Amino acid sequence: MGTVVVDVMLKSEILDPQGQAVAGALPRLGFNQFTDVRQGKRFVLTVEGEVTDEVLAAAREAAETMLSNPVIEDVVGVRAESPAVDAQAAEPRG
Amino acid sequence: MKIGVVTFPGSLDDHDARRAVRIAGGEPVSLWHGDDSLRDVDAVVLPGGFSYGDYLRAGAIARFAPVMSALIPAANAGLPVLGICNGFQILCESHLLPGSMIQNDHRTFICRDQRLRVENATTAWTSDFEQGAEITIVLKNQDGQYVADKRTLDELEGEGRVAFRYVVEPAAAGAPGARTYDRFAGRNPNGSYRDIAGVTNERGNVVGLMPHPEHAIEQGYGPSLDGLTFFSSVLKSMVNA
Fold it and tell me: Domain locations in chain B?
């Protein structure tokens, strides 16, 4: 079982009200070093078997046609993610 | 004259839109999102609401519903289509209208009587208005901020395709202690670029707007009867066609 991760962000020239809300709240917790916050979307697409070039191509097409709206958003990443790496990342650190 | 009103999962104002069609003298026809037939209607309204819960983006999933596979080519061939609120978002996602809608810049839901200026009184849905007329209908939305890149906005303005603009009330009305306090005095109510409340396509048969004409059609309910003119316009334009 493989997964493809698609990341979508609002274009930089489009106002991001959600990001602004987060940016406004961070200083209340003492995080004063972040001057801006942009919030995006991550889609994790799962397939049976390996993530082949065809699967990646289909994911790219889905990202451009449905997962994002090219008028306001950019697809900033489409990549295969191996389950092994996922499992490692999920391990508690320290 | 049959005017279809599409019901998507999460549509809220389909009943009101059908009622408005009937009161204006048309015959309302229910259309279903999962059906790829337009049932021989003469015009279509995409109503307000939260189709598919506004998941992904407002209108983004509705745009791929089976009924849209019939509606998009029909609209491109000249069928009058009015998208109200969520319907406007669906028309933008379908690329029948340019631009897109994002969350209100003040991040809160808004519901109020809203003054608009009719900027284009030649479309299928506005021909019964006077050019430049000011009307008052209901505005209620979460994702109502109209955005597009500068080139698109210039093009819309240059071609007269801004159909409606929000009337921005004088800033004095927003001052503390003002006789008629207005939270949105001095600015438009959702941050829409260039105060745009509604746009039309090149041909003038497809119109989308954020506020709700179907809630201003009957004495005693809503702020005016201005909403009726949208429906009388399209009924007349069909007679003349």
Answer: 2-240
The string of pLDDT tens digits covering residues B118-177 is 999 999 999 999 999 999 999 999 999 999 999 999 999 999 999 999 999 988 887 877
A78: which 2 tokens? 């489409």
Q: Where are the domains of chain A?
A: 2-90
At residue A10, the 3 state secondary structure works out as strand
CA–CA dist A48, A55 (Å, integer): 10
Superfamily of domain A2-90: Phosphoribosylformylglycinamidine synthase subunit PurS (3.30.1280.10)
User: Which of B56, B64, B104 has the CB atom closest to A17's CB atom?
Assistant: B104
- Give which of B148, B134, B223, B144 is closest to B189, Cα–Cα: B144
Between the CA atoms of B57, A57, B36 and B213, what dihedral angle is there, to the nearest 10 degrees? Answer: 20
Our CA-based measurement puts residue A92 at a distance from the nearest CA of chain B, in whole angstroms, of 31
Domain B2-240 has CATH 3.40.50.12710: no
Q: A-B interface: how many C-beta pairs under 8 angstroms? A: 38
Residue B145 CA to residue B106 CA, distance in Å, equals: 10
How confident is the model at residue A84, as a pLDDT? 54
Enter the pTM of the model: 0.91
Question: What pairing do the DSSP bridges indicate for beta strands B43-46 and B100-102?
Answer: unpaired
Residues 28-47 of B with CB under 8 A from A: none
Contact (CB, 8 A) for B147 and B218: no
The string of DSSP codes covering B133-147 is -EEEEEEEESS-EEE
Closest residue on chain A to B93 (Cα): A69
pLDDT in tens, B197-217: 999 999 999 999 999 999 999
List residues of B with catalytic annotation. 85, 212, 214
Mutation target to probe the A interface, by most A beta carbons within 10 A, among B63, B69, B94, B103 is: B103
The whole-number pLDDT of residue B175 equals 80
